[in-house]
Structures are given as C-alpha cells and as structure tokens.
Amino acid sequence: MKVLINRLHPGAIIPEQQTKASSGFDLYALDVVSAGNVSDPYNDSFETIELRPGQWVLVRTGIAIQVPSTMEAQIRPRSGLALKHGLTVLNSPGTIDADYTGDIGVILINLGNKPVDISKGDRVAQLVFQPVHHDIELLPVKQLSFTQRSNGGFGHTGTKRSADIA
C-alpha cells in the first residue's frame, strides 16, 4: 500500500518504523500549541515544554498524509511513554480519515504524577494504518438476538478465569 506524505514544514521528521515488524510509524514533535491556538503558524523557536500532571497539549508533527479511501490512520500512544511517565494520547486512538490531508496533530496528556518534558524531535506517538469498511448499512430492528453475554457490560465477564472461581 502506498501512502502519500507531505512535509508541511522543513523541520518536520517523516514518520518511520523502528523495526521491520513494527505495526506503527513513530510520529515526531515539531512544536506544541494549546487547544485554542491550533491555527497558529509553526513556532520555529520551540524547543521544549514541560507538561504538568493533568495538562494536555496539541503536538504538531508538520506532516500530512493521504491514505486510500479504504483505509484510516490511527494515532496511538507509545507504550514506553505511558509506562515510564503516564503520558498518553487523550483521544486514543485518534482517527485520521482518508479525506483529511492537514497537519497531523497528537493530543498528549500527562496522566502521571510528575512533569514530563516534550522536546522538538521527540517520538510522541505512533501512526498505524487500518482498513475501513464503507459498505456498512445500519438496519434498525426492535430486538437483537440473545447471546451468552447479551447486555452484560463493563466488568461483566469478571477478572478471573472461571476455573479459578470456587
């Protein structure tokens, strides 16, 4: 599959896989803006920002992609940042529809208990490509078929294997 990529800023780093078997392409920070300033021009003097616990920002990558109409790109957290710092993607997974060709932004939030520095060139998230089905038709019905789980929701299946339950 071919995905077109456009470097919107000369300082933008093209995403790359770290290994041949990686499912994601690492996204790199170019600059950081608050939610209310998403249309600001790129900040060429950006170097580092301290992200305090509970704070979130939009990390701009300076790249745009165009995926085939049968695909989407998803922005997912990097597991190492989540484990070490409590840093994650707020709207995970973020969705990039095939018809969006603007700057890819990553909404990062610090869920940890210590400040985390985000610097230009840091790997902040990963980009994963997934198929999309456009031939789905939702059919209204009065009732759905019974299943073993039916409407059992969050936690319905428990946390232990059934063999472990006395």
Automatic annotation (TrEMBL):
Pathway membership: Pyrimidine metabolism; dUMP biosynthesis; dUMP from dCTP (dUTP route): step 2/2
Superkingdom: Bacteria
GO molecular function, one term: magnesium ion binding
GO biological process, alphabetically ordered: dUMP biosynthetic process; dUTP catabolic process
Annotated keywords: Hydrolase, Magnesium, Metal-binding, Nucleotide metabolism
Cofactor(s), names only, from the UniProt record: Mg(2+)
InterPro entries: dUTPase, dUTPase-like, dUTPase-like_sf, dUTPase_trimeric
Keyword Transmembrane helix annotated: no
Enzyme class: hydrolase
Sequence positions that bind substrate: R78, S79, G80, N91, T95, I96, D97
Catalyzed reactions per annotation: dUTP + H2O = dUMP + diphosphate + H(+)
Enzyme Commission number: 3.6.1.23
NCBIfam families membership: dut (TIGR00576), PRK00601.1 (NF001862)
Function: This enzyme is involved in nucleotide metabolism: it produces dUMP, the immediate precursor of thymidine nucleotides and it decreases the intracellular concentration of dUTP so that uracil cannot be incorporated into DNA.
HAMAP family: dUTPase_bact
Name of this chain's protein: Deoxyuridine 5'-triphosphate nucleotidohydrolase
Gene source species: Heliophilum fasciatum
